Records
---
Amino acid sequence: NYYGMLDQLIASKGRVFFGTWWSTLSGYVNRMRGYYIAKHKLEGYEDGTMESYYFFPDERKEQMKKYYPVKKPIYMREFPTSWLDIDKGIEEMHQQQ
């Protein structure tokens, strides 16, 4: 049964995504959205933000609209370090600093 994987692929290409904070499906959709936004240099690619929201819990609704560095606990969400500058080599990263 491939329905879950197909749901993730389809949801990752939408303009806006609403997911659930503790959901691994939502987390992976956001990661794929991040890869897509970075690859195509869409709005938010420079700072790792995207049009994704969590409909529950309310205080987490706009977590993906702001940049957050990796911090514990890490299993509830994806962090922009997963997709920011993943195609750059070490030399390029060092030259930017």
Note: The helical segments are 3-12, 24-40, 90-96.
---
Amino acid sequence: GLPAATGTPDQDLLESTRLQIEAAIARKDAKAALKLMNDSTVPLDEDLIKQVKRLVRHATIVKALEEAVRVAPTKGVEVVRRAVHAAENVKSRNPTIIQALQKARSVI
């Protein structure tokens, strides 16, 4: 089970919020992590905020690539080319982005 709360209510809330955000990051659930961060009533550690922002940025890039691939049959491959170019400019080594880029490139 979970360890018994030992700190002040604020410390316990901070720890609980941090754990929930870290769990969302581990699940790669950008939406949940961002919501938890924005709804937090306790100040969060700067590193955790950076992790959430990075996750949201990566999710946004992947979503843009997937959307471009989805609309390519009706809107043309130029949409995919632009999305690929934008994603390449980010120069990310994130495996999810790399995978989405490979899939998008296969459509061009």
Note: Helices lie at 9-26, 30-39, 46-75, 77-90, 95-105.
---
Amino acid sequence: LKPFWLELEHLRSLHRAPCLPRLAVGMAPVETAPAPAALVVTGAGSGEANGLYLPTERMVFGAPVFENDERCLISREPHNDKNKGEIRYGWVLGRHRRALYAVQTDELLPPS
């Protein structure tokens, strides 16, 4: 995965109710973050990655999943940090289960 982040801005002109935490049976509640109304990606090397991303109904790893018209997704994903021996998180922009761009961060919302 390539480190990156594109010009990503939160559209504050749209309004959306905060996402509610989802609970799995037999598990403790997962901390979640309210989803921005939308995200805009511009200047990506891959044209399909550009565009308006709206929140989907899905939450993964305590964070909202966003999708654009080209069926690209922005989602928070785990990976193993072999140097520290722990699981770390990052945001991935991908399509058809193939990462196009990624950035490592433990934040529950995509970087801007």
Note: The mean pLDDT is 76.
